[in-house]
Amino acid sequence: MASLILLCFLALFCFALPSHAATYTVGDTSGWDISTDLDSWAAGKRFNVGDVLLFQYSSSHSVNEVTKESFETCNTTNSLRTFSNGNTTVTLSNAGTSYFACGNRLHCLGGMKLQVNVEGDQASSPVGAPEAQPQPWDTTPRPSSKNNNPTTVSSSSEGFINGGIGSLILPILFMASTALDVFHI
Asked: Against a cut of 0.70, is the pTM above it?
C-alpha cells in the first residue's frame, strides 16, 4: 500500500509541471481588423517568452511578422513569416520586440499593425503552444462585430506540460512497485 501511495505521489510530481504561458486573442472580440485599435489593445499588457498571440481575421487580411524597418514603412515584401489562414497562433519565442503587420499595405498604414515587447529569456521560459494549422473542420467563429473598445483581456491558459524525464521515471517506478508487490519485498 505504501508503495502505491509513493507511486501516485511521484506520478503527480513528475507529470504536473506548471506552465504559466498566456494566450492573448489579438484585438479581443474585435480581432485582427482595420477597425481595431491595436495600440490600445496592447497597452498595459505584459508579454513573456512562451506566451501565444492568437490572430483571428477575415480572408481580406493576413498576418506578417516583420522587422522594425518593415513595420515602420508597412513593407511586407520581405516578411519573416506570413500567415493567411484566418486563425493564426504565434508563440513569442524570443525576448525583445516583435512586429506584426497586415499584408494589405493600406490596412497597415491605417493602423493594422502590432508591436509587442516580450519580456524574459527563452532558457527559463515554459514551452509555448504549437503553431496552428488550418483544419477543414475548423468552426472557430470569426470576428464579425467590430468595435474599438475591447472589454476584456483573454484569460491566461494555465495548464500542464507532460513529458520530459517524468515520462521515463513513471514506468520504471511502476515496474519497481509491481516487482516489490509480487516478491513481497
From this structure: no
